[in-house]
Write a structure and sequence with these properties.
This protein is mostly helical and 90 residues long. The chain has one domain. 72% of the residues lie in helices and 0% in strands. It has five helices and no strands. Helix 2 packs across helix 3, helix 2 runs parallel beside helix 4 and helix 4 crosses helix 5. The longest helix is centred in the first third of the chain and has 16 residues.
Length: 90
Amino acid sequence: MAGMKEKYAEKLAKRSEESKVYRKFQLIGLEIADILKDRKHKALYIKLAKEGDSEKLLQAAKAVAERKEVKNKGAYFMSVIQNAEQHPHH
């Protein structure tokens, strides 16, 4: 009986570590956070993916991630997408 309880506890611990993703925009937001190595702000990226064009956001995140000289990729990403919103025809 003790063995069963231990296995159940392990299963629960493993399940709690996994991200709970229910919708596509949540997955996109987490993917952006991972691309930018900025899981700390995953809720922000999920919100952006929910409200915006997820393909453009992913492209922007990948472009930012490729820039080796950028130290704070999350902040740079935000400036890039804010600039794109202000100047949509660029």
